């Protein structure tokens, strides 16, 4: 049994992953960095803050100065009644207008305009000058005093767009948080599968040594021939296990290639081992941290701010329309255009006026129900936040229990492996004196392989539990040194503006 004893030392040796030819050594930090920079879902989500910035700029366009130019020419040949009765000449008139102007929206909802009106008139009537110019420079103001008065109604679109951008950044943080958590989990899974592959290789190596030794002992007449069948079955079953383990490793490598968007088909070799360090978790402190950091909650609160703003504006729009209108102008009139302009410049012929326009629909059902609907939406948003807070609190508690349970599993699986190793030693000794069959030894070795696999799974399971707790509290990005600002989305917007 010397060969079996030698193989046993291999089975019980500490597990290490060796770099295969063509493999790529990959640290967890490098994996996370690659996913943050290259993952396609992350890159696609980043366009939403960029588009939100475009919406902000679009809504700021309400303050763009509007330039207007209108011109008109009319020619008329008429026969007035007086001309028909007296037999005088037919009346002919020509009129040309050219009126440039600008107008600007004010933050309080009013509109200020400046218009330069020019009109040229010609007529063949003998009772008035045959031709003259009439110009005026008019400053006008239209200002709502009740409905639509103030900054909130005027800049509603701007403020909603800004809040929407905040929400899009929080959605990006949520996706990034999920992506980083998934990278940690998939990275640990690859570590686990590669370690399990080494277990399967070592187990197969031991089974082959047992088969070789059994064949020699059967040939020597020490063991019955049927023991060869038992040993061959042990080899065959472990070869199948090895094939399955190799497939799982290759499949997991493909998962990471897609997740990290790293080129090539080389196998990744994890260089970071999941932590065994205990995680100190104070429930109340972690819940408070989660309620403050979770991006889903921040996004929902941003949506609530939008609803509250829309409610204030909806309430304003239940008021009557009362608009102040005012205008002041300086005018000119002369046969010659330059003299006409000189009169405008002297301001000797001013014209001004002021007025109020009142309008109110009887019943005002549309505005009133818009306001009621807005209030209901606010209450709905507050209820959704309370529900989300309760779910976040439950997630944190569940994650804490997962960490505690996972840490305890480390000790349990350590003990299980130690027991399985001792049991295999015992059965090998019993086999040497004929008290155990080859089948018994292979079954006990299989139990040891299972115990080692359980130990690996417990280690990665504890690491995953820590990851889920950091995800639940929202501090995972900070732990990995990842910050999210408007800069990334704004750079995409600026790039699109340059293209």
If you had to describe this structure to a student in words, what would you say it looks like?
The protein has 499 residues and is an alpha+beta fold. The protein has helices spanning 2-12, 28-38, 40-45, 47-60, 81-86, 151-154, 156-219, 226-260, 283-293, 295-316, 337-346, 365-432, 438-473, 476-479, 487-498; strands at 24-26, 66-78, 91-105, 111-123, 131-144, 268-270, 321-334, 350-359. The strands form 2 sheets. A 6-stranded antiparallel sheet has the order 2-3-4-5-7-8. Strands 1-6 form a two-stranded parallel ribbon. The chain is elongated, with a radius of gyration of 42 Å. It starts with a helix and ends with a helix. Mean pLDDT is 89; it is low at 1-20.
List the main descriptive attributes of the protein structure presented here:
alpha+beta, two-stranded parallel sheet, 499 residues, disordered N terminus
Number of helix segments? 15
Helix content: 55-70%
Strand arrangement across the biggest beta sheet: 2-3-4-5-7-8
- List the uncertain runs: 1-20
- What integer is the average pLDDT? 89
Radius of gyration: 42 Å
Order of helices and strands: HEHHHEHEEEHHHEHHEHEHHHH
For the biggest sheet, the summary is: 6 strands, antiparallel
Structural class by helix and strand composition: alpha+beta
Strand fraction = 15-25%
The count of β-strands is: 8
Distance between the termini: 76 Å
What would you call the shape?
elongated
SSE layout and pairings?
Blueprint: H1 2-12, E1 24-26, H2 28-38, H3 40-45, H4 47-60, E2 66-78, H5 81-86, E3 91-105, E4 111-123, E5 131-144, H6 151-154, H7 156-219, H8 226-260, E6 268-270, H9 283-293, H10 295-316, E7 321-334, H11 337-346, E8 350-359, H12 365-432, H13 438-473, H14 476-479, H15 487-498
Helix pairs in contact: 1-7, 1-12, 2-7, 4-7, 4-15, 7-8, 7-10, 7-13, 9-12, 10-12, 12-13
């Amino acid at each position: 049994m010397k060969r079996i004893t030698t193989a046993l030392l291999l089975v019980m040796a500490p597990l290490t992953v060796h770099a295969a030819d063509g493999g790529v050594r990959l640290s967890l930090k490098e994996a996370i960095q690659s996913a943050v920079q290259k993952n396609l879902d992350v890159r696609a989500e980043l366009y939403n803050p960029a588009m939100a910035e475009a919406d902000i700029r679009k809504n700021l366009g309400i303050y763009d100065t509007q330039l207007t130019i209108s011109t008109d020419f009319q020619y008329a040949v008429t026969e007035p009644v007086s001309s028909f009765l007296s037999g005088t000449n037919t009346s002919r008139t020509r009129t040309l207008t050219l009126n440039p102007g600008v107008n600007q929206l004010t933050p309080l909802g009013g509109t200020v305009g400046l218009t330069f009106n020019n009109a040229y008139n010609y007529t063949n009537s003998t009772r008035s000058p045959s031709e003259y110019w009439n110009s005026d420079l008019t400053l006008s103001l239209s200002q709502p005093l009740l409905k639509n008065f103030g900054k909130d109604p005027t800049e509603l679109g701007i403020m909603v767009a800004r809040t929407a951008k905040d929400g899009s950044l929080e959605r990006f943080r949520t996706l990034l948080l999920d992506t980083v958590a998934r990278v940690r989990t998939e990275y640990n899974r690859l570590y686990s599968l590669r370690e399990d592959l080494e277990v399967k290789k070592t187990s197969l190596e031991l089974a082959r040594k047992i088969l070789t030794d059994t064949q020699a002992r059967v040939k020597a007449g020490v063991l019955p021939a049927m023991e060869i069948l038992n040993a061959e079955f042990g080899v065959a079953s472990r070869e199948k296990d090895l094939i399955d383990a190799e497939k799982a490793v290759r499949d997991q490598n493909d998962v990471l290639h897609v997740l990290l968007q790293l080129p090539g088909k080389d196998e990744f070799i994890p260089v970071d081992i999941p932590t065994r360090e205990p995680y100190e978790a104070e429930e109340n402190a972690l819940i408070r941290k989660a309620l403050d950091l979770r991006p889903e909650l921040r996004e929902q609160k941003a949506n609530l701010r939008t609803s509250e703003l829309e409610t204030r504006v909806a309430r304003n729009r239940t008021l009557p329309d009362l608009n102040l209108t005012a205008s002041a102008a300086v005018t000119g009139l002369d046969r010659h255009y330059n003299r006409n302009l000189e009169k405008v410049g002297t301001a000797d012929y001013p014209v001004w006026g002021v007025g109020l326009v009142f309008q109110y629909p009887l019943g005002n059902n549309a505005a009133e129900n818009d306001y009621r609907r807005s209030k209901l939406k606010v209450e709905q948003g507050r209820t959704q936040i309370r529900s989300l807070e309760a779910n976040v609190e439950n997630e944190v508690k569940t994650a804490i229990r997962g960490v505690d349970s996972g840490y305890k599993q480390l000790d349990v699986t350590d003990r299980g492996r130690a027991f399985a190793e001792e049991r295999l030693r015992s059965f090998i000794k019993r086999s040497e004196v004929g008290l155990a069959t080859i089948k018994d030894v292979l079954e006990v070795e299989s139990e040891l392989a299972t115990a080692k696999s359980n130990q690996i799974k417990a280690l990665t399971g504890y690491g995953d539990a820590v990851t889920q707790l950091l995800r639940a509290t929202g501090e995972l990005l900070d732990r990995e040194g990842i910050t999210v600002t408007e800069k990334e989305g704004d750079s995409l917007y600026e790039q699109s503006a340059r293209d």
